[in-house]
Each structure stands twice: as C-alpha cells, then as structure tokens.
Design a protein that fits this description.
Rossmann fold; 38% helix; binds S-adenosylmethionine; eight-stranded mixed sheet
Length: 273
C-alpha cells in the first residue's frame, strides 16, 4: 500500500509546515503541529479569510461529488491530494448515494497515510484504497497495481484534483499532469479541479500575494482564469463552467454567498466526450 520505507511515524516531519496539516488547522482540526499553525497564521495575515476559503473549497468538493454520484452516475473516483480525513470525505458522500462506489485516494504526505484508516471505511458493496504517491509523477500513480485492482479504467472515473494542483508551481505546469491522467480514463470520465487565484483580489492584496510567493511564506500557486480554464481543454465544461468555488451549483447553500475576493479560488467540472 505504501512506497514508504520504515514506520510511517518516522517519516512525519514536524519541523516543516505541510499543506494537509495547515488545511486541517484552518478547518478547525487537531491533526497539526505548531509549525503548521504558524504557517497558517502567516497566510492569514495577508489573506484573512483563508479559513472561509478552505471551508468553501470543502463544500465545493462535496457538491461536486454529489453531482457526480447522483446526476452523472459516476461510481469510481480517483481523489488525488486527499488531505487529512475530516467529515464527509469523498467516499462517504458518494457511497451515501451509491454504496457500490469505489475510491482510490492518493496523497504524498505521510501524515495522511498515518490517518488513512479513516479513509478506508468503505461500505461492504464498495471499496476504498489509499496510495502514497506524488501528483507531479502522474505516470507512477497510474502504474500502481492497487489503482487498477480498485478501479476499472474501462469504465468512467472522476478525477478529483481539489486544492492540490496549486502545489504544482509554474504557469502551464498543471495542464500536462491533468492531460496524462485524463488520457488514461475513458469517455464519460470527469475532471474536478479547484485552484487558488489572485483574479478577484484587490491590487494591494494581489501584490502582497506575489510578495509572499517570492519570500516563500506561501507555496500556494495561483492560476488566472485563462490558465485554469485551459486545464479543461478537450473536455465539456459542466454548467455553470469556471466559477469561484463558493458559487458552483450553490443554490442550496446559505445566502448571501461570500464575496469571491474572500475565497480567491476557482472551481470547475468537465466531462470527457
Ligand atoms: C489543501 S489539502 C486538500 C484536501 C482535499 N482535496 C480538499 O480539498 O478538501 C491538499 C492536499 O494535497 C496534498 N498534496 C500536496 N502536494 C501534493 C503532491 N504533489 N502530490 C500528492 N498530494 C499532494 C497535501 O498533502 C494535502 O493533503
């Protein structure tokens, strides 16, 4: 199940902030260290609504999963950048609608591996698997035998890249990874992506974001609408297209919806024709 050598606890680095634990801190979880809280607080100084953005991203993930399971008939998910288990993980949302759903979770953080038991609570009819692997090596993810033992790649799969692609820095760096993964999936498969963006930010905050990237106090790489939309090249964008995560099919969410500048994250879902 793991490509780790030695006990998982030996691999956990409590001296460097990690995205999964920082996100867990913003979501109010307890699975984080002082270094993650300090990094989370540092980002809150330039982007004070980061906690709300994390919550809205999580709600998008759940709405997109419900759409895929209930409306699109998807029964297989490849969820890369899983994060630490929290309430309503992908398999729980999907299996409530279709208990036979199969989910492969992938993350590169050993801390997620240490908590993976909570991700492996499948219904008896379905199945969940956890792999430790890196999104930046999509070919290696596809080559893992456990992936094909759990997912039938002749049938549609939803590829979930929710709040993970922005840890792959560089303009245009996301598209080839998405392409490699989607090329391995058949017609009728879906792509779900969210990514931080500076687009709705006031000029002063956008400049602070650039300064934080340059100083290394954030490693969350923002993508503008054009670059984000390009991730869906060759796919049919599902209505309402590329939107702030807080506005995607959010008609049943409490009003008023947050100001997009307080979220600064795009979301979208596309279908492979
Ligand atoms: C912000 S969390 C998102 C969790 C979940 N997808 C969600 O949206 O609620 C990002 C996750 O991506 C993982 N991650 C970051 N870079 C990664 C990479 N190169 N390969 C695999 N996982 C990665 C982190 O360890 C973390 O668990």
């Amino acid at each position: 199940m793991s490509i780790l050598e030695g006990p998982v606890s030996d691999q956990i680095d409590s001296t460097t902030a990690q995205p999964a634990r920082r996100y867990n801190y913003w979501l109010g979880g307890k699975d984080n260290f002082a270094v993650d809280r300090a990094s989370g607080d540092e980002i809150l100084r330039t982007f004070p609504t980061a906690r709300l953005a994390a919550l809205e991203n999580r709600r998008f993930l759940q709405r997109a999963t419900r759409f895929l399971a209930a409306e699109a008939g998807i029964r297989q998910f490849l969820d890369i950048g899983t994060g630490l288990p929290t309430a309503d993980n992908t398999h729980e949302v999907a299996q409530r609608i279709a208990p036979e759903t199969r989910v492969v979770y992938v993350d590169n953080d050993p801390m997620v591996m240490a908590h993976a038991r909570a991700l492996l609570t499948s219904t008896p009819q379905g199945r969940t698997t956890y792999l430790e692997a890196d999104l930046r090596s999509p070919g290696a993810i596809l080559a893992q035998p456990q992936l094909r033992e759990t997912l039938d790649l002749r049938e549609p799969v939803a590829l979930m890249l929710v709040a993970v692609l922005h840890f792959v820095a560089g303009y245009g760096a996301g598209a080839p990874i998405v392409r490699t993964l989607m090329d391995a999936l058949p017609s009728g498969s879906f792509l779900v992506v969210t990514n931080a963006t500076k687009d709705p930010l006031p000029a002063r905050m956008a400049a602070d974001y650039d300064a934080a990237l340059a100083a290394g106090t954030t490693n969350i790489w923002p993508r503008d609408r054009a670059e984000f939309t390009d991730l869906f090249a060759g796919l049919e964008l599902i209505e309402p297209g590329v939107t702030p995560v807080s506005e995607w099919r959010a008609q049943d969410e409490p009003e008023p919806r947050p100001d997009p500048a307080h979220i600064a994250m795009y979301g979208g879902v596309g279908r492979k024709p």
